[in-house]
Design brief:
Strand content: 35-45%
Largest sheet: 14 strands, parallel
Distance between the termini: 81 Å
Structural class: alpha/beta
Oligomer: single chain
Radius of gyration: 36 Å
Number of helices: 4
């Protein structure tokens, strides 16, 4: 008896095999938990695949946009392994669907649904959503919605063509014109003969021939910069606030030179805000403008800026917007010029990067419709300009290469009524990122055919 009790006590204290006993008890719930984990992971993987297929199908339907949009969408879904009517899979594609962003009933939807049989999950009491051939099933589904979304393309040569000129952009024997991959836009037609001008894409409302590596149609662009003239604060002040009092000295041609107007030379300091110069401005020597980095606005009222063979530039660290304003008629000219016809004159302007005139180098008041044309841009004078040159009612003859300003970014956007390009007419390589750094928002054309997922 004593020996039996000793053996029992020894057995009671012996812990060997305890883990095996515990694992024997827990093996069933552990295996069940692992099984459920794998099963749920399989559901997630299947739904993820369904969603990828639905996204691709909705995009295909929106891109198609035709009567067989649903056929194409289902064909795309099949490439992802989801075939309508096979293995419980159902695919529904619809058009004229309400867009989740509230933009109208112009969206396309693709819904994919199907079921998978339950496995281990039944052991914990999950009964699924349906029964198929006596087997409990878990229903899975996905939904995608897409809509047409024309893509924006930045433009650095924009012909507003409000005058109705048939060709907003036209070449005149320009075999060497180079826009350095720039994109252009004409609110009427574009015609380039013999050379594509080095444009990448030429957008036009009307006929579009020969300009750019690609030609595309586009709706007309609304003038994006006209509101700057009346923006408050920062717009062009009313004429009666200029201090000119109707006195606008004009230069005259005297034999082989010009005289009159107001002579300008040397270093000129401009304060922030608006400075008015009245009538024609005739350089008698090089002019350097010192202005705050935040920018000064120089408004020439009823006059031209005649460089007269000299250089007009902003100094390092200075920023300025040159504005031409005034009245129509009266024989007034409202543009930069070089009446020496190409004797080395240079217009070199860096605009402010912030404020109401951010990124704007040269701006003609959109109310001006006469005396606004430019006959030899980039040649007489040479233009070294960063930012926007805005001449909405001008016919601009682009005859030379335009480079960036000495102290500015590699960004140039030209806006005029129309452009006549000849000789070496062209512009520097415009970098979109550099335009942003210069403070300028570029105009954009819309490329049809783009699609975006909205759900």
């Amino acid at each position: 008896m004593r020996e039996l009790l000793r053996l029992i006590d020894r057995f009671r204290k012996d812990r060997r095999g305890t883990v095996a006993i515990i694992m024997g008890v827990l093996i069933i719930p552990l295996v069940g938990a692992l099984g459920i984990g794998f099963e749920v992971s399989n559901w997630y993987r299947t739904v993820r695949g369904m969603q990828n297929a639905a996204d691709a199908a909705a995009i295909a339907a929106a891109l198609n946009g035709g009567a067989n949009y649903d056929v194409e969408a289902k064909a795309v879904a099949a490439q992802y392994g989801f075939v309508d009517g096979n293995n419980t899979i159902s695919i529904t594609v619809a058009n004229n669907v309400a867009c989740p962003d509230g933009s109208g009933n112009t969206c396309y939807s693709a819904a994919i649904s199907g079921s998978v049989p339950l496995l281990v999950s039944q052991l914990v009491g999950f009964t699924g959503d349906a029964t198929l051939n006596g087997v409990r099933q878990k229903n899975l589904s996905s939904l995608a919605v897409a809509k047409s979304a024309p893509q924006s393309q930045d433009i650095c040569l924009l012909a507003l063509a409000s005058s109705g000129v048939p060709q907003g952009i036209q070449t005149n024997g320009a075999p060497t014109g180079n826009m350095n991959g720039c994109d252009s836009m004409s609110n009427t037609g574009a015609q380039c003969n013999g050379h594509d001008l080095g444009l990448d894409t030429s957008f036009a409302v009307g006929s579009n021939s020969g300009c750019g590596l690609k030609q595309r149609s586009s709706p007309a662009l609304t003038d994006p910069y006209a509101p700057l003239a009346t923006a408050n604060p920062g717009g062009i002040p009313a004429l009666n606030t200029s201090g000119c009092a109707g006195n606008y000295p004009q230069e005259t041609h005297q034999g082989n030179h010009y005289s009159g107007g107001t002579a300008r030379t040397g270093t000129i300091t401009l304060p922030s805000g608006n400075t008015f110069w009245c009538g024609d401005q005739l350089l008698s020597g090089n002019v350097t403008i010192n202005a705050p980095a935040s920018g000064a606005v120089l408004i020439i009222e009823n006059g031209q800026l005649d460089l007269n063979g000299f250089t007009f530039k902003t100094s390092a660290g200075s920023a300025m917007t040159l504005v031409f304003s005034g009245s129509n008629g009266g024989g007034y000219l409202h543009a930069p010029a070089d009446n020496t016809n190409g004797n080395g004159a240079v217009l070199d302007i860096t605009p402010p990067t912030t404020g109401p005139w951010a990124g704007v180098a040269v701006y003609q008041d959109p109310n001006l419709t006469t005396g606004v044309d430019v006959s030899a841009a980039g040649n007489s004078p040479t233009w070294n300009i960063t930012g926007l040159v805005y001449m909405p009612h001008a016919s601009v003859a682009l005859k030379g290469a335009i480079d960036k300003s000495t102290n500015g970014k590699s960004c140039l956007v030209l806006v005029a009524d129309n452009f006549q390009i000849s000789g070496t007419g062209g512009i520097l390589k415009t970098d979109i990122g550099q335009c942003k750094a210069a403070g300028l928002t570029m105009p954009t054309a819309k490329i049809p055919g783009g699609v975006v997922l909205v759900l």
